[in-house]
Each structure stands twice: as structure tokens, then as C-alpha cells.
Amino acid sequence: MGDFFILFLSYLRVLPAFLLIFIYLCLRLNLPDVKELHIISFNYPYPPSYGGIIDVYYKIKALSDLGIKIHLHCFVDKIPVKIDPEVEESTENVFFYEKKKNPLLYFSEIPFAAVIRDSDLLLKNLEKIDAPILFEGLQTTSVIRFLKNNRRELYLRHHNNEAEYYKGLSISEKNIFKKIVYRIESLKYKEYQKKLLKKFEAVFCLSEKEYNEVETYSKNAQLIHIFHGNQSVKQLDKKGNYFLFHGDLTTADNKRALVETIDLFKTLPQYKLVVASDRAGEDIKKRISAVKNITLTPILTTENLHHLLENAHANILISYQNSGTKVKLFNTLYNSRFVIINGNITDDPALTDLCLYGADMAEIRQQIITSAEKDYNDSEKRKEILEKTHSDHAKAEEMVKIIFKN
Hints:
Blueprint: H1 2-30, E1 36-41, H2 51-65, E2 69-76, H3 85-88, E3 93-98, H4 112-115, H5 120-128, E4 133-136, E5 154-158, H6 162-172, H7 176-196, E6 202-205, H8 208-218, E7 221-223, E8 242-246, H9 252-266, E9 273-276, H10 282-289, E10 294-297, H11 302-310, E11 312-317, H12 328-335, E12 338-341, H13 349-352, E13 356-357, H14 361-373, H15 379-389, H16 392-404
Parallel strand pairs: 1-2, 1-4, 2-3, 4-5, 5-6, 6-7, 8-9, 8-11, 9-10, 11-12, 12-13
Helix pairs in contact: 2-16, 6-7
């Protein structure tokens, strides 16, 4: 009887340990595998108010909503004091790296936009967490040559054919020094793309144009259209209060487009133009202030951008670069009324059909006059086309299948 009692006590001692192991194994078997992803962004993706940064922000949000743990790395001019809650809630970690400011880097054989986004600290942070890496644009890829773990799976979000992009900037630029710099950057990117595109498991392209270029060259292209953050087409009144031009006014293409738009509205004093941007130089501010029917307003937040779009009667979207569908087209189609475009805003016929088209500035001017007299009634038509084919959720699911092979 004594031996039995001793044996019983020994079982009691080990039973809690067995129970804990059993419970842990049961939970482990029922838990889904945690998927983690490094995303290296060319800038801090908030507010999502211009260009490719819109795609970056809403991609992070859509991937996070699918349960992906995002380790976000951002190259910035100056490290921000705090992380915005909108970014914090969609990421596991956020790391910042200051872009290099050495002008001698213009003489590097690597494109300037890429070589200034080089960081030893980034390499250390990538090595700490074993996960696939998604590079946002070729300008974030300079560190690839220093990565120690050659087995790490690398992916690229191909925002532009950078060689063509900088060639276009060179053509649009008035300043002779900048014109030369952009042309040299274009030639550097031409060689850089040839060396690098084949290193990626997949290159996620924004448009048919980029898809066909990459697929012809490196056979690893995947067509994933722009992430834009819009869920449903807004139901709006028939009339808005002004015409709207919005975008990043530090780029030569947008500056050229705005200057030509300002010249149009000088001849149309009966119509009000609002220019919305957080990135306008002194030269642009002077041009705007010299015209009574044109005002400049900051964007600051996504909510403010949507407010500006909802109150606009028509949007002016002009580009001199043929690089597929521009990100801001989706914001205007989902959240505003008429959209007046030229031929470089989109290469998608279905999207062009939702807009008012002008082949040149004379036709753009006529579309401004025509739209001012029209009532807006296109919500249902847009809803039918946009909500079926351009959902962020579906795009994120497609990326997850490719990156995590499931």
C-alpha cells in the first residue's frame, strides 16, 4: 500500500507537465502558421497622398488585414518624431533610415535614387528576422548586393520602368542641370534594371505595359494592379464647387502639368481651380498666388483629401509620361465627380471610358467648359466596373499566394 501511494504521488508531480505539453501541442496544431514579410519603402507611407506611396500604404493595410505580420522599413529625409496610428496598427515593426545626402553619390554607377537608400542598419534589421523581402521600387534595392543570406526570397513592386520615368522627367524639366542629371539617371537605371530584375522571385507590375516589359526580359512578372484603399464608389450630388488638381508638386511631370493647367485657368476666370499638395515649391506658390481664381491648399490627411475630392465638380489629371495607370486616378474615380485626363493617365480602356478625354490642352480646356455645365450621374457605371475588378483585398490575396506559395 505504501509503494502504491509513493507511485501515485510521483504521477501527480509529472501530471501538470504532461498536461501543459498536451495543451501546448493541441494549440500549436490548431494555430495557423504566422506569415511575416519585410517591406522596404522608398518613403514613409503616410499620409497616402501622392503617387506610389498610395500603393505602398494600402498594400500594407490589405496584407495586414489578411494576417501578415509586416516589418516596415522606411527611407526618409528626416526621421519622424512619432509613428502615425494608422501605420502602427497595420505593422509589427517600423524602422527608419535617413537617406544619404552626399552629392558625390551622383557619380556612383548605381542610380542616385538607389544609392542614397543604402544602410548598414537596414541590413542588420533584415538579418534579425527571417522573412521574405518586398522592395518598393528599384530605388530601395541597393542593399541587395550586401545581403548575406542568399536563400532569402526577394520580391519587387515595380512602380515604374525607372529608365523611362527619368527619361520623361528629363524631357519635362526646364532647368538644364536637372535635365542632364535626370538623363544620366535614366541611363544608369537602364543598366541597373538589366542586372537586377532577374534576381527576384517575382516582380509585381502595376500595369500591362510594365508587365509586358518585365515578362519579355526576365520571365518573372506578375500583374497586380494598384492598391488604392477605396472600398466603394461614393454617391455624390450632381454638382461640385470647383475644379481640382492634386499631386506631388516636386516632380517635373506634375509641375509641368500644373503650369499648363494654371495657364488654362487664366483664360477661364469664371471657374475656380483648387490645387491640393503637401509638396509645392516657392516657384509654384508664386504662380498660383498670381491668379485670382486659383488657390493652393495642403492635403495633410487622407480624410482631408477625400473631402477635397467629394466637393470637386471635376478633376484635372495630366501626365507627360506613359507609365501605365496613375494611382490618383482611382482616388478620383471612387471619391469625386468628373475626371478629365490626357492619354498618359491610364492604359486601361475600361478606365478611360469612365473619364473625359483630351488629346491636348485645347481639348482639355474644352472638357473643362463642357463638364462645368453637366450634371454628374455616373456613380452606377463606375460601381459596376471598379468594385468588381479593382478590389484591394483580392490583390492582397494574390500576392500572398505568390509570396508564401499557398
